[in-house]
Predict the 3D structure of the following.
Amino acid sequence: MNYYLGIDCGGTFIKAALFDQQGNMSACIRKNIEIISEKAGYAERDMPQLWLTCAEVIQQTIRESQVNPKQIKGIGISAQGKGAFLLDKQKKTAW
């Protein structure tokens, strides 16, 4: 059977869910992400931590579902709309 992974990197949490071909959810994991706010109307994320949290959520979702990762045939990703993640030439976060 084929499975599909959905990842939502939103403003307050990261969520991953795994679905089969019929749309049945096999597992769903979500974790809160820290918001760094030094003044009203602004929010920042610790990008290395965000990346690690995303990887953890994906791993936990696959582990909980007990699906063989080779059966995952597609990945869909959504993220918050008002954001910019700047990288330097070494692809490290630049701020």
Notes: The helical segments are 47-65.
